[in-house]
């Protein structure tokens, strides 16, 4: 497949009161043509810095970037027409209508005004297009932002949190739109914190933490490389699950109770579960590995999983010593 976007060795540092901070520390990313590619990372990990650098809004310290085979920012003016982007929260003039806003943007970009009505229809604003933007909800403003990014019919669409403010129906509509655009040949780079949506919509992902790439590949490949380490345990009918859970917890297991089963979240050696319980004449009828989802992988790789009794601070990504190893080894 042809790479539409390539980033290699990207570095960006900032100087502040506490010294030099590496916003990007040798970051790499490749996005193939026709894919919906998820770009994931915790707050402060470098996602927005990467996108702003890619679009020529920030100057990097080191690294190489290319869009559609042309090096940027050197050739950005030549490829800009082929790129549509929303980075952070776009601002619009509140007294203008959506139709006026997009018409002005179309004129500025040399786009036929007929395209305005097409994109308004695509994002579901056709019937509200003559209302002032200041009367719009956050979700409607986000729809308008996506419409503005689609005006040029770009080959590469970069969206930073496009589902921000959308209700569940709107999120599903946005998901369908992204898939339709990809099916029509557009490449979409999608940054979002809604990991369930990323898993549903994206062909591939890149996860960034502390300015570095921690994993990348197809969604299936990334999930296959990272097992959850959790197992579902079901006992014989009538057995005291609470008592069984207490036995395992006393041995260091992380147990979560459900109505008819419990889950051991850190079972590196599941056989230890049956052994400990059998010693107390409690017998297991089911021991099933729990498949990892993208949220599990994200929390593991970025070190941002909640730790009981601790309040994790922004930028605090190091995993606690207790979370590094499995139980029952």
Automatic annotation (TrEMBL):
Keywords: ATP-binding, Nucleotide-binding, Transport. It comes from Actinoplanes aureus. GO terms for molecular function: ATP binding; ATP hydrolysis activity. This is ATP-binding cassette domain-containing protein. Residues 309-329 are annotated as: Disordered. Residues 5-235 form the ABC transporter domain. Belongs to the ABC transporter superfamily. Pfam families: ABC_tran. Gene3D superfamilies: P-loop containing nucleotide triphosphate hydrolases.
């Amino acid at each position: 497949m042809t790479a539409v976007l390539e980033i290699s060795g990207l570095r960006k540092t900032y100087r502040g009161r506490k010294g030099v901070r590496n916003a990007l520390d040798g970051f790499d990313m490749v996005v193939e043509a026709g894919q919906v590619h998820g770009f994931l990372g915790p707050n402060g990990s470098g996602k927005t810095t990467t996108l702003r650098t890619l679009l020529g809004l920030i100057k990097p310290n080191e690294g190489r970037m290319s869009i559609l085979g042309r090096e940027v920012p050197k050739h950005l003016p030549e490829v800009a027409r082929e790129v549509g982007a929303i980075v952070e929260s776009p601002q619009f003039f509140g007294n203008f209508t959506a139709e006026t806003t997009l018409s002005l943007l179309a004129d500025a970009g040399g786009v036929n005004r007929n395209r305005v009505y097409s994109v308004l229809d695509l994002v579901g604003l056709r019937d509200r297009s003559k209302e002032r933007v200041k009367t719009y909800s956050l979700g409607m403003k986000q729809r308008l932002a996506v419409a503005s990014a689609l005006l040029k019919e770009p080959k590469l669409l970069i969206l930073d949190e496009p589902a921000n403010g959308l209700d569940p129906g709107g999120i599903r509509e946005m998901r369908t739109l992204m898939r339709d655009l990809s099916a029509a040949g557009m490449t979409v780079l999608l940054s979002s914190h809604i990991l369930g949506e990323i898993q549903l919509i994206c062909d591939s992902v890149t996860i960034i933490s502390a300015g570095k790439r921690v994993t990348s590949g197809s969604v299936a490949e990334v999930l296959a490389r990272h097992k959850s380490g959790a197992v579902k345990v079901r006992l014989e009918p009538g057995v005291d699950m609470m008592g069984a859970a207490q036995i395992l917890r006393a041995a260091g297991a992380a147990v979560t109770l459900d109505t008819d089963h419990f889950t051991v979240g850190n079972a590196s050696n599941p056989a230890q579960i049956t052994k400990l319980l059998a010693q107390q004449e409690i017998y297991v009828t089911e021991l099933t590995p729990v498949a990892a989802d993208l949220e599990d992988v994200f929390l593991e790789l970025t070190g941002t999983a909640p730790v009981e009794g601790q309040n994790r601070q922004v930028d605090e990504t190091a995993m606690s010593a207790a979370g590094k190893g499995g139980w029952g080894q």
